[in-house]
């Protein structure tokens, strides 16, 4: 699961009005960057006092960053309404009067700044309005749960296309912005001498940025939505593929072999084990875990011999050389139990303690007299007792005719 | 005859258990949801409720919680395919008197139901393993924080649980340990009580290793 979490795109930038002091812009950006919002707040205030850029950037961000809860950017909501144009005109007039007032008071606000600024503001407003209007219909309505939306594949090209009805007014807006740049240059005598080419380029780039930013933003947002959708559908097809390869195959086999109860039971158990392992996901690999190694050995014996084996493990440890010997001996004991227990269920219990590891393999078969086992029975002698002793452990067989058999394996840690 | 109500959200499974228990215990009815189960159990007053661990709407734990408010003496036996130690321990701590896996045979299940009806605790090998794991962590705690009455298993209780986990029946354990079957029962009931009353189980090994370390 953790691998999937890593692949999901980061949470989009959202203002949380409850978190913030004014509109939550600093809080949102700070959360995204993982820093304390107070740092940003102080920077914004400082930048505002030092020349006004802080305020400008803040207002721009206020307009562009959507509010938490899926609502569109406040700027888009604002300009989407007809009467806000009146408000906009009012604000422009107010701004104008403030600028004129400042100019009177001797501060460095000249015609060289005021008129280009107003032109640029008007042009940008037109462009942003068109972009917002085009973006609005594609935004998900906040109240509608995700799954209710039609499940049509997302068209990535949709995000790239320019909103066609916006082109007329947007062209006017672009012209205004460029005109503002030219006026600015002209008023500053930058057009005549070639020495200010750098300034000219900078201004043009700034204007272009202002014009293209809305489409660029839409493109980025569209792409991240598309990416999330792609990840979802990938996960879906992975689950589908797994179910197809495993469960459906087994069900088909079960239907085919319905006449053979033992085969059906073994198929069902194998499928159950496989599905459990898949659902568990984060299980340790057999190589790292004694319990997992024992379970793998039990599964293998169960499959070969068609006898149900239940594994109960308490504690766990990495598999070292002695652990590997223990697993091999346990496997041999399971094979013996499966062979001689006559189909009765076999129980494997393993306990990893502080000082030693113990494994018990018990079956409810007919049992036998351990004293009467011929010397040449290599399974028990060599593979179990011999192997355990070579690694400093021991193996004891408890059995009596009619009482089942239990093999006890003990090894130090 | 001992009476039971079967609570499980899988229709096929309820039908299967009903068929297996037919003639061995009296099945008063079955329910597929938490609400239906609570209503049915309070009405029918069975000796034992066979309870699925994982069900929509809160699962077996929620059924126990709601029934206990109306019928505090009701006995429950958890019956599940769930392998997750947390789920199984949770339902035992809510008040179930045992846990058996769904692969149990009909005769064994009927026997387990009868024993729960008589007030005994029924531990399957898997539950015994979970409980040993759960109490294993208490050993590494500072002694001052451990209440030996509740937080630790006695050596005898551990021995009994280990035998259950190894697949021995109660009477076989009694024979091997040289005690009576009743004493084995008493040890298992004591373990059940500790499991339900101890607050230490969160610090146990499975909780630490399987949940926190991930």
Keywords:
heterodimer; A: 413 residues; alpha+beta; B: 214 residues; alpha/beta; 6 strands; disordered C terminus
List the helices and strands and how they pair.
The complex is a heterodimer of chains A (413) and B (214).
Chain A: H1 2-7, H2 25-33, H3 37-51, H4 53-64, H5 74-80, H6 84-104, H7 111-135, H8 156-160, H9 167-187, H10 197-256, H11 261-280, H12 290-305, E1 309-314, H13 321-340, E2 346-352, E3 356-363, H14 378-390, E4 394-399, E5 405-412
Parallel strand pairs in A: 1-2
Antiparallel strand pairs in A: 2-3, 3-5, 4-5
Helix pairs in contact in A: 2-3, 3-4, 5-7, 7-9, 7-10, 9-10, 10-11, 12-13, 13-14
Chain B: E1 3-7, H1 11-21, E2 26-31, H2 34-44, E3 48-51, H3 59-70, E4 75-80, H4 85-94, E5 98-101, H5 106-117, E6 122-123, H6 125-136, H7 148-151, H8 155-165, H9 170-177, H10 181-197, H11 205-212
Parallel strand pairs in B: 1-2, 1-3, 3-4, 4-5, 5-6
Helix pairs in contact in B: 2-3, 4-10, 6-8, 8-10, 9-10
Write a structural description.
- The complex is a heterodimer of chains A (413) and B (214).
- Chain A is of the alpha+beta class.
- Chain A contains 14 helices and five strands.
- In chain A, helix 3 crosses helix 4 and helix 10 runs antiparallel to helix 11.
- Chain A is elongated, with a radius of gyration of 37 Å.
- The N terminus of chain A is likely disordered.
- Chain B is an alpha/beta fold and 214 residues long.
- In chain B, strands 2-1-3-4-5-6 form a six-stranded parallel β-sheet, sandwiched between helices.
- In chain B, strand 5, helix 5 and strand 6 form a beta-alpha-beta unit.
- In chain B, helix 2 packs parallel to helix 3, helix 8 packs across helix 10 and helix 9 packs across helix 10.
- Classes of the chains: A alpha+beta (413), B alpha/beta (214).
Short précis:
Chain A is built from 14 helices and 5 strands. Chain A is of the alpha+beta class and 413 residues long. In chain B, strands 2-1-3-4-5-6 form a 6-stranded parallel sheet, with helices on both faces.
